[in-house]
Amino acid sequence: MQPWITLERVATPDGPLELRQRGSRDFIITIAGRILMTSVAHRSEDALARLACEGLGDRRRPRVLLGGLGMGYTLRAALDVLPPQAAIAVVDLNACVFDWCRGPLAGLTDRAVADRRVKVQVADVARVIADAGHGCYDAILLDLYEGPHQATNRASDPLYGASALRRAHTALRPGGVLAVWSEEADQPFETRFGAAGFRVSRNGGGKGGRTHFVYVGSRIDRRP
């Protein structure tokens, strides 16, 4: 078996972020030694994009926000179901991830980052959502590290707390969708999600192997 080769290592507040390669198309991204993504397992990322975006085809110019780029599989799957007039903003904390998806990882997703519908931004997606205007997006996708879990169940969590979910609700247009990738099922998050004004479903990411989850919340628009 061929050894892993580290193509680049970048210091981050959470530890070294690394891109490693073995052979021609086998890649992993790690942080502080923990595997974040592999090029051979991305079913739940594909499901995240499909569940969030496949219902937007009847919207004239849907606007989508994707937090977290990874290897670009979620972005590729979203582009595959979005119409030509769509606009998708991709936000990631690390500029190197955009460079990797333009460079050694580009062939995995048919150069998804270069699609004319895509604009990229190095930023904190929680801040981008907080700064968004009312009804700015048709869908928001969060594809970030572990997703919601016990350590993020405090009310003030900037991504998965009650206030953060209400901010996402505000940033969505009527009937909009917030979709969240999760490493594990999290009932407290599910409860907060519904209380923030969403109709929530929990979906498995695919059959076989380790099961990750995709939470999909459709914005409920209460009439006065």
Which ranges are low-confidence, i.e. pLDDT below 50, for 5 or more consecutive residues? none
Mean pLDDT: 93
- The CATH architecture of the largest domain: 3-Layer(aba) Sandwich
- Give the helices and strands as they follow along the chain: EEEEHEHEHEHEHEHEE
Q: What is the name of the CATH class of the largest domain?
A: Alpha Beta
- The CATH superfamily of the largest domain bears the name Vaccinia Virus protein VP39
Please describe what this structure looks like.
The chain has helices spanning 43-53, 73-81, 95-102, 125-131, 162-171, 187-195, and strands at residues 5-10, 17-22, 26-31, 34-38, 63-67, 87-92, 118-122, 137-142, 172-182, 198-204, 213-219. The protein is α/β, with parallel strands linked by helices. It has 2 domains: 1-40; 41-219, Vaccinia Virus protein VP39 (Rossmann fold, 3-Layer(aba) Sandwich), CATH 3.40.50.150. The strands form 2 sheets. Strands 7-6-5-8-9-11-10 form a 7-stranded mixed beta sheet, with helices on both faces. Strands 1-2-3-4 form a 4-stranded antiparallel beta sheet, with no helix packed on it. Helix 1 runs parallel beside helix 2.
Annotation keywords:
224 residues; alpha/beta; Rossmann fold; 7-stranded mixed sheet; 4-stranded antiparallel sheet; 6 helices; 24% helix; globular
